[in-house]
Amino acid sequence: MKKFLVKRLLISMVLLVFVSMIIYGIMRCMPASFVETKAMELAQKPGAKSYEEWLAQLNASYGLDSGIIQGYFTWASKAVRGQFGDSWNYNQPVLQKFSSVIWYSFALAFSAFFLEIIIAIPAGVAAARKQYSATDYSITVIALIGISLPSFFFATILKWVFAVKLNWLDLYGIVGRMHQQMSPMGQILDMAKHMIMPVATLTIVGIGSLMRYTRTNMLEVLNSDYIRTARAKGLPERKVINYHAFRNILIPIITLLGGTLPGLFGGALITETLFQIPGIGYTSYQCIVLGDIPFVMFYMLFSAVLILAGNLIADILYAVVDPRVRVN
Amino acid sequence: MANEENTKVENMKLDDMQRVKVLSPSALVLKRFFRNKLAIIGMVIIIMMFLFSFVGGMIIPYGQSQVFYTTEEMRKDYAGATYISDYVVYEAEGVEIPSDLYSKSILAINQNKAVVESRGGGHLALRPLAGDSYLTYVAEETKNPRAMKSAEHKAAVDAGENYFEYDGNAYIVDDATGKELLYAVSEAAVICKLSFTPYASDTALPYDFLKNALLAMSGADGTFEAGGNAYTLEMDGEAAAMVYAADGSDYAYISDMSINSVLGGVFLAPDFKEAVALAIQEGTESFLYTDAAGTEDTYLLSEKNGQYLISRFQETRVIDTYAQPSKTHLLGTDANGMDMLARLMYGGRISLLIGFVVVIIEVIIGVIIGGVAGYFGGWIDNILMRLVDVIYCIPAMPLYLILGSIMDHYRASPTVRIYMLCVTMSTIGWVGIARIVRGQILSLREQEFMVAAEALGISVGRRIFKHLVPNVVPQLIVFSTMGLGEVILAEATLSYLGLGIKYPAASWGSIINAVNDSYVMTNYLFVWIPAGFLILLTVLAFNFIGDGLRDAFDPKMKR
């Protein structure tokens, strides 16, 4: 087990090096005039340094003045030490901005994740229990609609119904207009109220795959011999499903969910942007559009780390949950 | 019928091929597929979408970037009118006039002086003509005792005037300083608070006409002569008058109002001015006027700080933005006045085409790399799969967004954007297919038929792509059908964010982009609802088909 872990970790590190190379390469593909324009812009701000100083600083901090390989190592050696530079857009260290916005994203993603689990798993089990019944068909169709629904379209419909027509919720943002005057409890409730539509969007859009995954695995389990044996023993159906079958579908489900855990920190780029929730996703979107290279580089690398971590966790969980894997 | 068939079967030999109806594997798959209701619904939707986008685009008479106009009744300013509160100077022909004539004359009127000094050192003399009108003269101080003693001067003094003519010259006497000063004068201009409009737009009214008309206005008989022609003047209210030529035809209109067209170079007929003056006097808000061409129009009159504005409703051609759905535009028009239905059709072409192109490229790259990796195994497999892992780790959505904003920076044309989008999406997307192909081939290559293929001496390339890959086709088809939906969704999201397909090219996502304006979201549902449902239906249909195919290819899930 230890050997397996170390091997996987090492592979992940190597992968990360290559991914960061590609990300750095993409950044180097940006037009050269981009940095010049940026320097010009920065120099025009009141009380700013001169254009030449900015240009030299920007080029030096991203190794743009040297060759691409040397430049990569300049950037990477700083990144390893946790120096990601200052965000151009927010005028503060990237990591500081990151830590101030990440919790909005986490709260959003975690609520949606929790809702998805408590809705999708029972629904998937119910669909598998009565395959080809009306329940199964409707759950399958709902799951497929969820997968197929463009999040921006669903978000717009939600906004139109709840914010425009019913006027219950606000269109955008994380806090209401009266936020400052509220009591601490009221402030939390205010933020929660603003989270309703984003969470609903994320849940509906993300619920389909988990539902179908549960259904497929449950069907597989229900077809296996030990379920037939359990039924032959005369166990009540409830016990067969909830005890014998359910425990066995937990293996793939926990593996899948474990793999998505790091992703909770990754932010929902689209949904956060749609509702202007100031999480990591919306912040990065703005930085991407405005060409804030330091923040975008950090976000890309961070996302890559999260994906790698997700794969790693899924692999480890697979081994932990299923004893058969451990033996091999 | 049934009996006949039975006898037929009985006549057959035991090993006759027709005794058992054998279905080929693909026919079995098809049969199972067509039994799946959802998959059929999906097929129908996709066929409809193709008809809608490709055939519909040909049938619809509008182009995707054809802008529509509409005529709208708009209240447009036509003319402005104001009472003339400042003196207007009408200069005489052929007289050299000092540059400060106007200001000095006003000064003289206000200070009630007969003679003022002009800037050039000369003098200006002023004499009341009639009412609020004055004659201005260029004056030169002279000493002419004979003129001062003449009977004409005496007569003028008796009449209380300071102007007299003597010996063919005109003189003005100024006694403002207590000493009588004599000035020889020559007429320079008339100053009055009236405007003169000739009936024919090309007539220029000569100076003596203006002067004599002014005199006639204060005179009793109302006839005067100018330039050898006789005119009749008829007062029209306090300070307006009509002038008729000798033959009785309308010649000019004199008014105390200045009425000018809003547009430069437009001649306003005197009877229009008369109508305006009448309406202002009567205090009405609108009046009717028939112009020279014979069309009657209602003109609206509004007043603000003594300025009167004459406006009328005019048909104006404007871009038909956000037109409600109607017979000509079944789904209305968008912000640029383009037909929504046509844009949805052309947008569908792009959305569907991008989906297919991307998936085809993905399948080609994925099958080659996955096939090679799976067949050879070992270090080749290791290297290729690590490449797959690396690409799998690149966050796709941020990457697309970055490329979109780079293309924005370069101002890439819509066509270039479409190509770039296809290339990027397929370079990121092929890894999933490569993994599936490689996984399947890893297990397939150990089977007996591969040993047989090797024993027959079939080349490696043929072994991979003729014997192994066809066995992966079921998974490939399922994966790419569902992938089509995903690609369409991703493209729509990008275009929605404004970083994918751009105006004037249409795509379903970029059409919904209009809801970023909350006013559009609230008021023009027809702009964003249809496009959203088209995306949803298309992606859903691809998923239905993919799901149906999966069940059809892999029946072991059926109990």
Model description:
The complex is a heterodimer of chains A (328) and B (559). With 328 residues, chain A is mainly alpha-helical. Chain A has helices at 2-29, 32-44, 51-61, 68-80, 94-129, 134-148, 151-165, 184-222, 225-232, 237-260, 269-275, 280-290, 293-321, 323-327. In chain A, α8 packs antiparallel against α11 (269-275) and α12 (280-290) packs antiparallel against α13. The model of chain A has no long low-confidence stretch (mean pLDDT 84). Chain B is α+β, with helices and mostly antiparallel strands and 559 residues long. In chain B, α9 (340-376) packs antiparallel against α14, α11 (396-410) packs antiparallel against α12 (414-444) and α14 packs antiparallel against α17 (525-553). In chain B, β6 (163-166) and β7 form a beta hairpin. In chain B, strands 2, 3, 4, 5, 6, 7 and 8 form a seven-stranded antiparallel sheet that branches. Chain B has a five-stranded antiparallel sheet with strand order 14-1-17-16-15, covered by helices on one side. Chain B is rod-shaped, with a radius of gyration of 47 Å.
List the helices and strands and how they pair.
The complex is a heterodimer of chains A (328) and B (559).
Chain A: H1 2-29, H2 32-44, H3 51-61, H4 68-80, H5 94-129, H6 134-148, H7 151-165, H8 184-222, H9 225-232, H10 237-260, H11 269-275, H12 280-290, H13 293-321, H14 323-327
Helix pairs in contact in A: 1-13, 2-3, 5-6, 5-8, 6-8, 7-8, 7-11, 8-10, 8-11, 9-10, 10-13, 11-12, 12-13
Chain B: H1 2-11, H2 25-35, H3 37-59, E1 69-83, E2 88-91, H4 101-111, E3 115-117, E4 123-130, E5 133-142, H5 145-149, H6 151-158, E6 163-166, E7 169-174, E8 181-192, E9 195-198, H7 207-218, E10 223-226, E11 229-235, E12 241-245, E13 250-255, E14 257-261, H8 270-282, E15 286-290, E16 296-304, E17 307-319, H9 340-376, H10 378-393, H11 396-410, H12 414-444, H13 448-455, H14 460-496, H15 508-512, H16 518-523, H17 525-553
Antiparallel strand pairs in B: 1-14, 1-17, 2-8, 3-4, 4-5, 5-8, 6-7, 7-8, 9-13, 10-11, 11-12, 12-13, 15-16, 16-17
